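Long-time lurker. I teach an intro course on protein structure, and each term I like to show students one example going from raw sequence to a predicted 3D structure in token notation. This year I'd like something fresh instead of my usual example. Would anyone be willing to generate the tokens for the chain below so I can use it in lecture? Attribution to the forum is fine with me.
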Amino acid sequence: MIVIGGGVNGLFTALDLSLRGFTVALLERGAVGSGTSEKMHGLLHSGARYAVTDPKAAAECAGENEVISRIAPHAVNDTGGLFVAIDKSDLEFAEQFLKGLDAAGVRHEEEDPRETAREEPFLTSEAKLVVKVPDKVVRARELMGSIALAAHDAGALILQDAEVVGIEVRGDEVGAVVVRDGLSGDNKRLEARVVVNAAGPWAPRVAAMAGIQVDVMATMGVMVIYDKLLSNSVLNRMRVPSDGDIILPYGGRSVAGTTALIVEDPDSVEISGEDVELITREAAALVPAIAKARPIRAYASVRPLIRMEGVDGRAATRDFAVVRHARPRNLITVIGGKFTTGRLVGER
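-- Reply from a regular --
Happy to contribute to a lecture. Here you go:
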């Protein structure tokens, strides 16, 4: 088996296959975990964020949150998460939200906002309803490094600086994958019985080398890191997923996000001052002190979402698809998914 892409989906796929006895080579054009997966905001989803708008993805996240916490506790901080309603429209959304949590199997309990204020002194005094959920913070680099080492120990060959530059199709199957060695500059041919395209937002480029089309909605999300730690828990605005509706405690700082802008090229994204201002303004509704904090860095991740007709990047599903192509019949492509569901992708 050849797995193309060293993000969370590709790494867990390589690990799962290796544990099942397959001979596996994982190819990553840069360093393991250096693409989309490394640039996520740090949330190990409880599923609550998508309980109303994307119930299947919510249920998957709820289950995988528990699995990842169990198998990789060294990479997870059990901060807990709070969904906070601060105005009339948030309260109107609350009934749907609570029903969605029940339907998706997301554990939750209501908290007295006065009690919450003792735990979260920077939270807005406008909090009218608070719901606690098992959101957590995951350290992406530590988790992905551990997955890579576990896959290696199980027999997988993990190749970094190994960019796929060609796919040879013979008849109705992939015959070989052509890889450029980033150290020597030489091209090498690798043969395998099955090839998994787990290249994230770059999956369409890989598929095109095999003469097929894969449709991915590449969607950029911007996150901003501030110079102060302004919450102990993950704080979420209790509303339909929107820009700037989450604040996480990460490494002694606060991280706020995110946006959802469709982009043409995942290698060419720009973060504007308007993006930072938008996130800061929206996040300040939850934590007013963030408006006076200093943004020390902004970064962007490009999500490989499943394209849906007439649906923008914000409303598109966060579920994933495993596509078995008719030709080449030994090529499989992974599209979509969350960092939280990477292990489930590998298993599927």
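Some talking points for your students: The longest strand covers residues 295-306. The two ends are 15 Å apart (CA to CA).
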